[in-house]
Amino acid sequence: MAFVFESIPAQRNVIELENPREVSWWIKRFGCSEEQLRNAVAEVGTCAAKVEQLLDGSDIIVTV
Question: What's one Pfam family here (predicted)?
Fold first, then answer.
């Protein structure tokens, strides 16, 4: 039996779109498409909490 290990982002509070493995991880984490992820990052920045709120449709944006 082969085991597949997913690569967890080094910084789980920052989304790095340059790393394909991280993009794949965030897409699974948020349940969105790559286009939706990239659009969200373009709108609110690379903060994972802000991107998650935007993708969830929350009105409140957390500022850090």
Answer: DUF3606
Q: How many domains does the chain have?
A: 1
Look at residue 56 and tell me if it is in a domain.
yes
Dist. CA 46–CA 8, nearest whole Å: 16
Cβ–Cβ under 8 Å, residues 56 and 40:
no
As a whole number of angstroms, the distance between CA 29 and CA 43 comes to 19
Domain limits at 42? 12-64
Determine the residue type at 22.
E
Residues 6 or more apart whose CB falls under 8 angstroms from that of 62 comprise: 47, 49, 50, 53
pLDDT tens for each residue of 1-60: 566 566 778 788 999 999 999 999 999 999 999 999 999 999 999 999 999 999 998 655
